Amino acid sequence: MRVEFDRDTCIGMYQCVAEWDGFEKDLNDGKADLVGGEEADEDVFVVDVPEGEELDAKFAARVCPVDAIAVYDDDGEQVV
């Protein structure tokens, strides 16, 4: 499972931070950061979800008010 995060779309509500430790606050930019994320495209970051944290990653995506977070299963299908 992997998470894709569009940092440009992020508006800094930090709801994802409350749901999953995979995100952290960047108070300098007023946006969230995807911990350990690699930039796959301009301002789009991707990270594999550690085993046991899948549910938290899904919740982080679901609470994002601007849909800046997408979760994909191992087959590449978007699940959130």
What is the β-strand count?
6
Question: Rough shape?
Answer: globular
Numbering strands along the chain, what is their spatial order in the largest sheet? 4-5-1-6
Rounded to the nearest angstrom, the distance between the terminal CA atoms is: 11 Å
Number of helices: 2
* Oligomer state of the chains in this structure: single chain
Q: Mean pLDDT score, rounded?
A: 98
**Helical content band:** 10-25%
Main sheet specs: 4 strands, antiparallel
Record keyword descriptors for this entry.
80 residues, alpha+beta, 6 strands, 19% helix
Q: Topology of this protein?
A:
Layout: E1 2-6, H1 15-19, E2 23-26, E3 31-34, E4 38-41, E5 44-48, H2 54-63, E6 69-72
Explain this structure.
By secondary structure, the chain is an alpha+beta fold. It is 19% helix and 32% strand. It contains two helices and six strands. The longest helix is centred in the C-terminal third of the chain and has 10 residues, at 54-63. The N and C termini lie close together (11 Å). The model has no long low-confidence stretch (mean pLDDT 98). This is Ferredoxin. Keywords: Electron transport, Iron, Iron-sulfur, Metal-binding, Transport.
